[in-house]
Amino acid sequence: MNTAQPAATDTAARELNAPAIEIADLHKSFTVRGGKVRAVDGIDLTISSGEIVAFLGPNGAGKTTTLDMILGFTSPTSGRCLVYDGSPQEAVKHGRVSAVLQTGALLDDLSVRETVAMISSQHTNPLPVNEVLKRAGAMAFAGRKVSKCSGGEQQRLRFALALLPEPDLLILDEPTAGMDVNARRDFWAAMHAEAERGRTIVFATHYLEEAEQFADRIVVIADGKLLADGTTEEIRALGGLRTVSVVWSDDDGDPASVVDTLAGAESFRRDGQRVVFTGPDTDAIARHLLNHTQATDLLIVQVPLEEAFVDLTSQAAHSGGIK
Ligand SMILES: Nc1ncnc2c1ncn2[C@@H]1O[C@H](COP(=O)(O)OP(=O)(O)OP(=O)(O)O)[C@@H](O)[C@H]1O
Fold first, then answer.
1. Per-residue pLDDT tens for 192-220?
2. From ligand 1's centre to the CA of 61, what distance in Å?
3. 50 lines ligand 1 (CB under 6 A)
């Protein structure tokens, strides 16, 4: 029938343009002894195809619970969670989304290759076993029994398994926890290659450096709420986290006068001979110090993301959120 044609085309077009993930007013509570835990408490988030997004947040922030809803492992208490404009379960079923989770059970007695071959047989149109082993960097230990693999090697195996259906969206929950620096670097190199193939990648991490180095966009989550969402630079700027440090001359009196007279300066602290100013306009602070004081040896310092992150989460704890 002709009528079926436009509908199919519409569906394909809609899916093509659909965001990878669309979350609106998402809530998830758990009933525990003594009350309720609001693990996810009103998150709105849209992730487009091709983005690499880090979920950053302290322990118990709600990152895993959010990822579990995106993967259809658990249902929202309320709100909407769509993956490619459909339910997460549909997306998983069609191989459009897969995950590298720390907890995914593996069979100890199988070799790495046997594990991939076994799971491969459950997919309709999987990538060849050797191809995924190669892409995940697992070829070198493909013959090894799972029980003899290190934690990092087991994560690579999980990565290989996740690649089998050639997913459009890869979800990774703290994928490199427990890996040493070299293993982590290799893992992210392999992941970079997948990103270059156009995959959307969403990962939760405690390693702020990883978020900074690998993600295009960082979503900061704490207490089940989204605190900040932006590029690494935007997240840093949110915390106002550039400082101007100078060797202060006592001839200029109290550094507080700079903060009092200059709109771009917010606060200062003494650090030995130096005075460190912070504020929304570090350029204006620097100009003022160079032109109107005897301060010398001026440094503008970008505060590391780690400190920006700590600052954001502690601000949230005190104010109930950051607008
Ligand atoms: N099944 C559950 N039953 C009861 N409470 C839960 C359950 N799952 C998660 N929680 C609680 O929900 C909150 C969010 O947990 P979640 O695991 O999503 O945080 P997270 O950001 O992933 O933390 P981490 O970085 O430590 O993995 C925590 O307070 C946690 O104890």
1. 888 888 899 999 987 777 888 889 899 98
2. 7
3. no
Output the pTM of the full model.
0.76
| One domain for residues 32 and 100 | yes
Q: Is the minimum distance from the CB of 30 to ligand 1 under 6 angstroms?
A: yes
Residues 6 or more apart in contact with residue 184 via CB below 8 angstroms: 152, 176, 207, 210
> Given this model, what pLDDT does residue 234 score?
80
Least confident of 124-128, 269-273, 307-311: 307-311
> Amino acid letter at 198?
G
For residue 3, the model assigns a pLDDT of: 36
Q: What's 202's domain CATH number?
A: 3.40.50.300
163 and 258: one domain?
no
pLDDT at 179 (0 to 100): 81
Q: In terms of domains, do 80 and 224 share one? A: yes
Task: Assess whether 231 and 246 both reside in one domain.
Answer: no
Ligand 1 within 6 A of CB of 61: yes
Number of domains present in the structure of the chain: 2
The range of the structural domain enclosing residue 250 comes to 242-302
The ligand 1 atom at the shortest distance from the C-alpha of residue 221 is 21
**Ligand 1 site, residue 63, Cβ cutoff 6 A:** yes
Residue 33 lies in a domain: yes
Nearest CA among 79, 92, 99, 96 for reference residue 23: 79
Residue 320 clears pLDDT 50, i.e. is over it: no
Q: Are residues 192 and 56 in the same domain?
A: yes
Residues 99, 208 share a domain: yes
Residue 72 predicted with pLDDT over 70: yes
The reply to whether 95 and 149 lie within a common domain is: yes
44's tokens: 């709105």
> Which helix (H) or strand (E) segment is 268 a member of?
strand 267-271
Buried b (16+ CB within 10 A) or exposed e, 272-299: eeebbbbbebbeebbebbeeebebeeee
| pLDDT tens per residue across span 5-42 | 444 445 554 455 689 999 999 999 999 888 999 999 99
